[in-house]
Specification:
CATH architecture of the largest domain: 2-Layer Sandwich
Number of helices: 10
Number of domains: 2
Distance between the termini: 50 Å
CATH topology of the largest domain: Dihydrodipicolinate Reductase, domain 2
Strand order of the largest sheet: 14-13-12-11-7-10-9-8-15
Strand content: 15-25%
Order of helices and strands: EHEHEHEHEHEHEHHEEEEEEEHHE
Largest sheet: 9 strands, mixed
Length: 359
């Protein structure tokens, strides 16, 4: 069958990336685009040659007329729950662009609403599709570094307004001017570097940890003058077996998909018998073991369909009944969200927050 896909809400620039993946999939067809601000759909309409009769500004009208099977959602963070609650009753599968939610309560409500429909609910974390991160998981599962003890995560970019879909560059001057009106820089909309990037680290970190959760979380954020959201956060999570660190940054010296900044963006995993480093988009991972303490570079795994992007993977799971790749599942994403919630509370109250008691 051909899977009918609708792209709804263009708040996040990743909608363009996800629509491109749908456009390229041999078993998918973009049957509708919907946004309350029609001008935000213009680039996608042009790029993917979407007919005018497939464009909508009303969600119910869009889904009733298009009869879409799968909905791509890219709303601002604080409205994720509202959009899932709006779309799910139409009986569609949903791919929600990261982050999962603005709060654990919102995440739980979205899980409840989608489970009631019996349809698939996936949360897309683009870093899952970095070959280095999948290679690191394979090596970890194979026991290459023994038992995992520490996850070190540092990631971000020059700022969310410095690029559009498919990483098209925006000038520094234009990016600075756009801050005043962008939801990314509004606290009430779920803006800030912490919500934008911490879920990547804690969700993939929970995947690497095999679902183990920390006992407590301590987070510190910067307070940039003139801004109501942070551009830098550092979270320390204490597990029974050790400490892990998750750092988010808007304002890296360079964007990691062009030139890696220093510190490098990505993950370092430390185990009882070795270490693995996996840096964003790099062609190799570095493996250090007892047998080779100097370390060696390994080519990342060559990813093939259906493990290259969310459209491939969701369609594969729908056709085969295979489970979603770990971080895309609500179960793993919920673990990441628990840590994010604790981090937000810790930063706000300027104290360590225990996860086991909620105090």
């Amino acid at each position: 069958m051909t899977w009918k896909i609708a792209g709804i809400n263009f708040d996040h620039m990743h909608m363009g990336d996800n629509l491109r993946m749908a456009h390229e999939h041999p078993k998918a067809e973009i049957v509708a685009l919907c946004d309350e601000q029609p001008e935000r759909m213009r680039d996608a309409v042009s790029r993917f040659q979407i007919p005018q009769d497939r464009l909508f500004t009303n969600v119910d009208d869009c889904l009733e007329k298009s009869q879409a099977d799968i909905v791509l959602l890219c709303p601002e963070t604080n409205t994720h729950r509202r959009w899932v609650e709006t779309v799910a009753p139409h009986g569609v599968h949903i791919i929600l662009e990261k982050p999962f939610a603005a709060s654990l309560a919102d995440a739980d409500k979205m899980i409840e609403v989608t489970q009631a429909t019996g349809k698939l609910f996936a949360i897309n974390w683009p870093m899952v599709w970095y070959a280095g991160n999948q290679t690191a998981k394979r090596l970890l599962d194979e026991g290459a570094i023994g038992q995992l003890r520490e996850v070190h995560y540092y990631d971000g970019n020059r700022g969310p307004l410095h690029h559009l879909a498919d990483k098209v560059e925006v000038s520094t001057d234009d990016a600075q001017l756009a801050k005043a009106d962008s939801w990314f820089y509004k606290k009430a909309a779920g803006g800030g570097a912490l919500l934008d990037y911490l879920g990547y680290g804690t969700t993939l970190g929970s995947w690497y940890q095999g679902g183990r959760m920390p006992l407590e979380v301590t987070t510190v954020v910067d307070q940039p003058p003139g801004l109501e959201v942070e551009e830098h956060s550092i979270t320390v999570a204490r597990y029974e077996h050790g400490l892990s660190k998750f750092e988010t940054r808007w304002g890296t010296f360079t964007d990691p998909w062009v030139l890696q900044p220093q510190p490098k963006c990505g993950f370092v995993l430390t185990g009882t018998e070795g270490t693995i480093s996996s840096y964003d988009t790099e062609p190799t991972v570095r493996l250090q073991t007892r047998d080779c303490p100097a370390g060696r570079e390994l080519a990342v795994d060559a990813l093939a369909s259906p493990y290259q992007n969310p459209i491939q993977h969701v369609i594969h799971c729908l056709e085969t009944g295979e489970a979603l790749e770990g971080p895309l599942s609500p179960e793993i994403s919920r673990l990441g969200q628990q840590i994010v919630d604790a981090a937000i509370q810790s930063a706000r109250e300027k104290r360590t927050v225990r996860l086991d008691t909620g105090s």
